Amino acid sequence: MTKSAPNHSIHIEGARHHNLKDLTLDIPRDKLVVVCGPSGSGKSTLAFDIVYAEGQRRYVESLSAYARQFLPQMDKPDVDKVEGLSPAISLEQQTATRNPRSTVGTVTEVYDFLRVFYARLGKFYCPKCGKPIEAQTTDQIVKTILAMEEGTKLMLLAPLVEHQKGTHKDLFSKLKKDGFVRVRVGGQIYPIDEVPDLEKHKKHTIDLVIDRLVIKDGIKKRLADSVELALEHGEERMIVTVVGGNAPGDTFMSTLSTCPACKISMPRLTPQLFSFNSPQGACPTCNGIGSVEYFEPDLISPNKGLSLNQGGVIPWKSAYRQEQYGPQLKKLGKKHGFTLDTPLSDYTKDGWDALFHGCSETGWPGIVPILEYGQQQSGVWDHWTARYKQSTPCPACHGARLRPEVLAVRVADKNMFEFASMSIQRALDWLNGLNFTGQETLISEPLLKELTHKLGFMVNVGLEYISLGRNMSTLSGGEAQRIRLASQLGSGLVGVTYVLDEPSIGLHPRDNQRLIDTLRSLQTRGNTVLVVEHDEPTILEADHVIEIGPSSGWLGGEIVFQGPVDKLLKADTLTGKYLRGDIVIEPPETRRTPTDSIVIKNVETNNLKNLDVDIPLGVMTCVTGVSGSGKSSLVMDSLYKHLQLFNGNKADNPGKIGGIEGLDKIEKVISIDQTPIGRTPRSNPATYTKIFDEIRKIFTGSKEARTRGYKPGRFSFNVKGGRCEACKGDGQIRVEMHFLPDVYVTCETCKGKRYNAQTLEVEYKGKNIADVLDMTVRQAREFFANHPPLMRRLDVLSEVGLDYIKLGQAATTLSGGEAQRIKISRELGKRNLPGALYILDEPTTGLHMHEVGKLIRVLHALVDKGATVIVIEHNTDVINGSDHVIDLGPGGGEHGGQIVASGTPEEIIANPNSVTGAFLKK
């Protein structure tokens, strides 16, 4: 291959990272390039581990050693040469953001502009009476203070510094020179000479003590002078603090804004006031999270058929607990008609409430207060009791996250929470409909321009149905990725390489073209757009296609095609055959007819409009619909979470439903997603599927192991005994390099085999335990052909298309599609599955067209064993391969939430109202 000029392409030589087989290739710059191929073939390795990581690593290395210590270190990929790199930005599918403070508005930085918008253009309305708030005069403030009860001790303070970093030594020196004696720093009063040194990088709040007074006759003149002085130093703001007794704390007063009827003074409008991540703006009850946790009796006592003596209250299963509270509980039972042997299901409602929340007449504090008290005393207790807690919207702010004073600020007819709760499209329409006059016109113009631009980009990527206040943890991987894509559109960068991971995931075929147009706009601006993708329309729109294969894992890692789309359509590759129609995924010859179902009644979760939904049992059901139509709200929030609660498991924020009929027909519910099967290299397919247990039994039964008295634990690399202690069974040792990325070197003692020499001396059919872990599933099936229990598990891995993975392959190196199929294989390994309900959300993520066909067959195999399978999916082959389809819509967000069509795929196609049916027909 001739080497292209670096300014026209990204030139890669000798790429051997993971399973790549010494690849040399050119990726054209300033083009839309799609990388496709089977799951686990090496697509993400090429795009993310080489192109993105190397570009990022070189940028970081150009910085000083001091700056590098604050940045994440990128591992150097195993590649000989990479030329023609430009700065790279990665847009991956990051679904598992656990930060409860992360919302769509904060991630897109729209919230930053919104805070300034409300601080500069908002108007106060009284939180109590709703009337507009007017400025308060100095005389009115004096009158309000004098109206306090005689003898009240109070302090007048002037707020000087609010949550600002620095030592503030100059400020203290100036105050001392001006004759002031005391200050309050972080709530603590100090003489100015004795203020401790403040940490430079911490935020501090400083208030100046103006005067200390007692309400009595004859203090009016002194009070008036002190109020004027406080307002002067506090920039028209002051704090009145009542001292001693049941003091209400700080009362904020200002000549800027106060309600004449309710006497409520409001703080000065600043952008910080509108941040739920700032103490100034956050709701004090939930600290700006929007929800609070509480102890849920149904989680504390999931099996109500048990009595207290039988362990019906899980935290009190131990005899110690029963002895400790026994006398009090007997006294409580005498009043409410139960004994310690009465099943909890036989308690009266009053008895149940008294048991959990207390009874003053008998002196019983209640299970919930006892747990709450223990939680306050010990952080360990808090961790232990987390499984018994449920989260619910904050009772003070009702999920708004902000203080009442902040929610009292409105622009036109909306406060900040109401604006953030609207869909992006409605918010955009509302902004465009605003009219400002006079000075406000000049202030609003740049802010409205930024807000409408950023919201417009979100509409362009198909996210018009979500709201700015939505928590990022509730978004699908595709939605989260498109939000970051919208942010990049707004940045206006050129000369950048954007690397995207399946941006079409979560998008209905109807919305695909908008996404492709967005990628095109990035590319035409002068950027290279490198997309890992399986979506047919996206592949067909590419300027250049790189197909990696021919198969997965160690059978992949080669370039089977690279070039323009018209040549791919003629190529003899797996993707080419599917695009031409040489290979198609055929629907099943017959559809199963359901004989039973469960019914979810009156579903009003998120945008669902009071639906009654029949979920057929014993068949494969596909829930589909345009993006934002309510699929996850129905299946995950309404069905799955309520089934979890029914089974005594924790489920945060379950959806709003009237009830579920037919719960007795479901014995267990399992959600199979694409999260890794383990977070460390110690977890692998063999350990996860319990194959390793069988293998260790076989080695334990060998003649050499019996002679030495070895037990199965001897062949585990996770415990002392048989493992190599030099590397603790990891096979490699991490060497810290400080300013360079950490280096992992193969353990010199065991040579990467994980076990000590004595353990490796035990062989079965000429192979030791390390040799077996290095086998692929295909090799293991041949090697252990005479062991039926082990063969059954290996056959299932082969059935789901994972013949090529190694038994000991680290979980961290498996793709999302591979991890999901390993989870399915573990379920398929069970003999019968009646009463089992499996839920899969977008299972085709990361799967090539060829693997989608295998996935459909595997899901039908689960149904053949008596299970029910529910799939949330947009892929037309999966929809067409289902027995039953529930199509939601007709639009997204507030325009969705209804059942457009329900029935077999043929019935969906025949329904003229179904957008999905139109794409199925094609």
Structure description:
It is found in: Cytoplasm. Keywords: ATP-binding, Cytoplasm, DNA damage, DNA excision, DNA repair, DNA-binding, Excision nuclease, Metal-binding, Nucleotide-binding, Repeat, Zinc, Zinc-finger. One of its GO terms (biological process) is nucleotide-excision repair. Its main location: cytoplasm. This protein has 5 domains: 9-91 and 518-580, Rossmann fold (3-Layer(aba) Sandwich); 130-266, Ribulose 1,5 Bisphosphate Carboxylase/Oxygenase; 304-390, no CATH class; 596-675 and 848-921, Rossmann fold (3-Layer(aba) Sandwich); 685-813, ABC transporter ATPase like fold, CATH 1.20.1580. It is 34% helix and 18% strand. The strands form 8 sheets. The protein has a 6-stranded mixed beta sheet with strand order 5-16-17-3-18-19, sandwiched between helices. It has a 6-stranded antiparallel beta sheet with strand order 9-8-10-7-11-12. Strands 24-27-28-22-29-30 form a 6-stranded mixed beta sheet, sandwiched between helices. Strand 20 (596-603) and strand 21 form a beta hairpin. Helix 9 (319-336) crosses helix 10 (349-357). The radius of gyration is 33 Å and the shape is globular. The two termini are 40 Å apart. Residues 1-6 have low confidence and may be disordered.
Look up the CATH topology of the largest domain. Rossmann fold
User: How many domains would you count in the coordinates?
Assistant: 5
What is the helix fraction of residues, given as a range? Answer: 25-40%
Low-pLDDT windows of residues: 1-6
CATH architecture of the largest domain: 3-Layer(aba) Sandwich
Please tell me how large the radius of gyration is: 33 Å
Strand content: 15-25%
- Number of helical stretches of at least 4 residues: 34
Structural class per helix/strand content? alpha/beta
Please describe the biggest sheet, giving its number of strands, its sense, and whether it closes into a barrel.
6 strands, mixed
Which descriptor suits the 3D outline? globular
Mean pLDDT: 88
Going across the biggest sheet, name each strand in turn. Answer: 5-16-17-3-18-19
- Termini separation comes to 40 Å
